[in-house]
Every structure is written in structure tokens, then in C-alpha cells.
Amino acid sequence: GKAACECNMCYGGHDCSEFSPDCPANADSGDPLFLEPYWREHAASSAVLVPGWHRMGYSYTGETLISEALEGQVRKLHAVVGNADTNGKFILFGAGSTQLLYAAVHALSHDKNTNTSSPVSVVAKIPYYNLFETQTDFFDSRRYDFLGDAAVWKNRSDSGFIEFVTSPNNPDDQLNQPLLKGPNVKTIHDRAYFWPHFTAIPASPPDEDLTIFSTSKLTGHAGSRVGWALIKDKGVYERMANHLLLNTIGVSRDSQLRSPKLLKVVLEDGGRGIFEFGYGKMKSRWQRLRSTVSLSNRFTLQKVPSQDCTFFQELMRESTPAYAWVKCEWEKDQDCLEVMRAANIIGRGGALFKADKRYVRLRLIRGDDDFDHLVNRLHKLISREERRG
Ligand code: PMP
């Protein structure tokens, strides 16, 4: 026979098939696998088979770096979802929104029209997605400095600023609007979560100078590394494109074979299939999470905004965000991450978003087993609460 396999901490037994009760509920990082059942349903129509000789070169016909089919599909997708106005805008694809977010900082801080000699200040309202800061610090240019909380600079936006605005926001789902305004302020709109799975799509699509989307939270193919930016200004587009050219010579041509195939399936029924599946899944998860947390006087969830949704034609649709932003309410629970850890739940602490340690973010978009495990752990933790008052 075969030697016993080396099990991880979640599975035991002689063939690693027994689920271990000590397995932590991992709600920190993880993949958007909540959409996997949708893709299993569409396994054949979404499959790609690429012979070895196909598309070996750098460029497409016409020397472009991007498949025209993909660009056309993205414009069509925004039109049917109603979450962006692509008219008169350039579209630039990147290796996920991660690459584009930095390309945008580069392009906006090299704007000759910004009449400042000092470095541009890069800011985001707290709580913010940590990458904005780590990436800006890491690339460490003389042109800009990351200065933290946008709220601090609200009435002092006379010098050059770049503000990241994420809406709906990671981690707390607020529908953020720019805090800084003025001739020397540029805004990067991160719309990674602006899809019907997670939030209402209002009647008129926002018309922004620079907006970044991604397939990661749209189709769930985070590993394909495909994102795009909608850009109004030609100069900004060209500087971003130049950054991508020098950095990676554009997006993997193989990803550009797979993505159009996936988007074709999405568009076949005008997005109804995938968004109904995604919204349905998130809605039932939020119902379970809410009813579990409602038994507690120790934890609260963020208040999620409701809005009329044009895509589903639903009035006052509650949002069903990708993350729960949990607050530990008891005086003694200063560190909510620790409270969770003691209950074998791994979240992401508020400190990482520059927020209070009383907050912890729990990710809700992995597979069903992961979500079940998380809710069971929370239920156990909450039912152990000593009743107070
Ligand atoms: N922006 C936000 C707000 C995110 O939460 C994420 C990923 N979690 C990204 C951007 C990056 O996504 P990607 O590079 O996969 O498109």
C-alpha cells in the first residue's frame, strides 16, 4: 500500500478524507469561489482549447497589444449592467486592477499640467484597502508620497493630491464619494465590487475621469489577472499605457483568449444568469450571517446601504457585500482579531485598514463549505456568550 499521505490541519484519517474539527475557518484571504458552481453549469460553453502553435507572438494583427473582441465585450457588458458610461473613454487592460492602480498613480503624478513642484500626496479615506499604501510606498518615487487618511486633508487640497475612492468600499461596503475636490486633485475610482452580485446598480451610471474594474470579482477568475481602466483623458491613457508597456508589455495573450470566452457566456443572456446566481448566493449568505449575529450582543455587522437597483429592477435593494466588517462591542474586546482567533476564525484585523482594532473583516466569497464552516464557528462562539445585563 501507499504510505499515509501528509494531511494538512483540516483533514485527517488514513487517506486525508476526514474533516478535522480543529480546522480554522479561514475568512482572511481566499479566492472568489462562490461563482464556481455557475461555471460548472457552463463548463462546456466556457472551455478553451488552445493548440501549441496558436498566438505565439507579442502582438495581434494591427500591432495592438489587446484583443479587440475583449474591448468590445467590456463596453457591451457595462452597457447591459449599467455600471459605467464607456462613451468617449479609452479602455486599457492590465494584469488585474493591481497593475492598473499603480499605473494610474504613475500617470497622474507625471501630469505636466499639475503645477506643483513638490511631490503629489496620495490619500484614501480610512478604512482603505491596504494595497493603495503598500504599492505606493514600495514603488517609492520622488513624484509622490502616501499620506494616509483622505479625511485629514479634506479642506487643504490646494497642493497636488491623488485620492483613491473605492465604492462599494473594501472592507466596510460604504458607497464612498471623493472627499477632496479642486483643480489639483485627481481621483482614482476603484470599482472592483461595483457588480450586481454585491450592490445595487443605480439608474444613471457614474461618469468618472478614471475608473478601474476587474474580472476578479466579476466572473471570479482572479487568477487570470485581467482588469481594465476607463480613462477620459488621452494623456493619462498614454502614460498608463506606457507604464504597462515597460512593465509587462501588456496583459498575457493567453488570458486574452480565456477572458473573451468567459465574457461571451456572461453576455449570452445579458448577464442575468451569472448575476442572478451571484446575488442569490450572496443574499442567502447574508441572511444566514445576519440571523447568526443577531443572537449576539457582543458583535455587530456594518450597516449596508440600500438603493434602488436598475439591473434587477428591485426597489431598495440591500447590498450583499463581499466582506463582513464585524465590530467587537464589549469593552474588554479591544482586539477583535484576537477574539476571532481564539474561536479558531481567521479574519483580517481592522489595523490593516488603518481602522480600530475593534473591527475585523471576514471574507464571504469562498466556496459553500468554507462559508458553512465560518458560520458554524461564529454560531459556536456566539452561543457561548455569557449573557449580560
Ligand atoms: N481593489 C480592491 C478594492 C480589491 O479589494 C482588490 C482585490 N481584493 C483589488 C483592487 C485587486 O484585484 P485584482 O488585481 O485581482 O483585479
TrEMBL record:
Start and end residues of each Alliinase C-terminal domain:
25-381
**GO terms under biological process:** amino acid metabolic process
What cofactor is this protein dependent on? pyridoxal 5'-phosphate
- Alphabetically list the UniProt keywords: Aminotransferase, Pyridoxal phosphate, Transferase
Span-the-membrane segments of this chain are none
Report the family membership: Belongs to the alliinase family.
Q: What is this protein called?
A: Tryptophan aminotransferase-related protein 4
